[in-house]
Design brief:
With about 350 residues, the protein is α/β, with parallel strands linked by helices. It has helices spanning about 10-20, 55-65, 85-105, 140-160, 185-195, 215-225, 245-255, 280-285, 295-310, 330-335; strands spanning about 1-5, 25-30, 45-50, 70, 110-115, 160-165, 170, 200, 205-210, 210, 235, 245, 260-265. Helices cover about 35% and strands about 15% of the residues. The structure holds nicotinamide-adenine-dinucleotide.
């Protein structure tokens, strides 16, 4: 059976591809290396460096290697920054997905595993349950919502199986340490290694349930199986125990190194305060279990991060720099050109 993994050079895509290849599937991978790293692509995977926004090239690769299963992980997954880079987020989420899904359906795909997000729940009362309506509160969540609905509609009309995964706050080895816009665990570790302060948006009492990749991966791999009971299901996958960002700092500090200072910044616009999910369905359908747990997962990631050493931050300009964006996201060029929103303030 051939499985196409998009986002294969990313953090989760690399782990998923490795897991699938290790149990004997033929794995084809696509990634444009915009957020991932070639070293994350596991050996034995037939890799194409390709931007899924290029529909012609995508069509050619999918046509040449028609997948039985499509695991779609490629994304710009910067939820908090999505309000400030909506065009890139729409292109790398909804449009990229349509570009790979169409040729996959045309070539007879049997099953699609869509990696969606908890962002589809928006600002509802946590814990988020799979039965809750989709009510996204940001541009990233809007894209994941549209991708979920597109999957459901096309699966109904064109008759393929699908399972939608809503992972949450996954961390672990191979995660980018360089992206200043997302992966709070990786950002904190890189700042600690660089001797920089940790920045927290709001008072740090917002709750999240962090999930170590070693715990989530077996459930991710099971989602790719052609089991009828998984067909048409939406499943939250991730940590069972919510903690606050302040508690996370305490754990990361203990496992990774000394925290020089914690600086509290204003809340990010449209950030959901308490975001964590129910996990019972993932246990029932995908046998999710926490073999490592949060502290052991952080310890393992910290060991990996220390071996890698401090990383330079990627410096990318936002499409819509604004005074409402955290000031640490703005570049020198943004400041020189003037920040919209600030100019009108006295
Ligand atoms: N990590 C999490 O906590 C988390 C939580 C919820 C959902 N997810 C979802 O899981 C998936 C994987 O997340 P991740 O943390 O591994 O992210 P990641 O950024 O490490 O991986 C995404 C990969 O997609 C690639 N990509 C982006 N645009 C592309 C394009 N146009 N063409 C080809 N490749 C492209 C990037 O280069 C990157 O390697 C994403 O869909 C994300 O939305 C992740």
């Amino acid at each position: 059976m051939r499985i196409l993994v998009t986002g294969v050079a990313g953090f989760m895509g690399g782990h998923v591809a490795q897991g699938l290849a290790s149990v004997g599937y033929e794995v084809v991978g696509i990634d444009d290396l915009s957020g991932g790293f070639e070293e994350n692509v596991p050996e034995g995977v037939h890799f194409f460096e390709l931007d899924l926004r290029d529909s012609e090239k995508t069509e050619a690769v999918v046509g040449e290697y028609p997948p039985d299963v499509l695991c779609h992980l490629a994304a710009n997954a910067r939820e908090g920054a999505s309000q400030f880079q909506p065009r890139d987020v729409c292109g790398r989420n909804l449009m990229a997905y349509a570009n790979v899904l169409v040729p996959a359906i045309r070539s007879g795909v049997k099953k699609v595993v869509l990696y969606s997000s908890m962002a589809v729940y928006g600002d509802q009362q946590a814990p988020f349950d799979e039965c809750m309506p989709r009510q996204p509160a940001d541009i990233y969540g809007v894209n994941k919502t549209a991708m979920e609905e597109m999957t459901e509609i096309l699966a109904d009309v064109h008759e393929f199986m699908y399972t939608t995964i809503r992972p949450h706050n996954v961390f672990g080895e191979r995660q980018s340490l360089q992206d200043p816009f997302r992966n709070v665990v990786g950002i904190f570790m890189n700042r600690i290694m660089r001797g920089e302060p940790l920045y927290v948006y709001g008072d740090g009492e917002q709750k999240r349930a962090f999930s170590y990749i070693g715990d989530s991966l077996p459930a991710f791999l099971r989602a790719a199986e052609l089991r009828p009971e998984l067909d048409g299901e939406v499943v939250n996958v991730g940590g069972k125990t919510p903690i606050t960002v302040n508690e996370l700092i305490e754990i990361v500090g203990t496992e990774c190194g000394d925290v020089v200072e914690v600086i509290y910044l204003p809340e990010r616009p449209r950030e959901v305060t308490h975001a964590y999910s129910t996990w019972q369905k993932s246990v029932e359908l995908l046998r999710y279990e926490e073999r490592f747990g949060l502290r052991e997962g952080i310890r393992r990631m910290a060991e990996w991060a220390r071996a890698k050493g401090p990383q330079p931050w990627s410096d990318e300009r936002l499409e819509l720099p604004s005074a409402k964006a955290p000031h640490i996201w703005l570049t020198e060029e943004d400041r020189q050109e003037g920040i919209p929103g600030k100019r009108s303030q006295p």
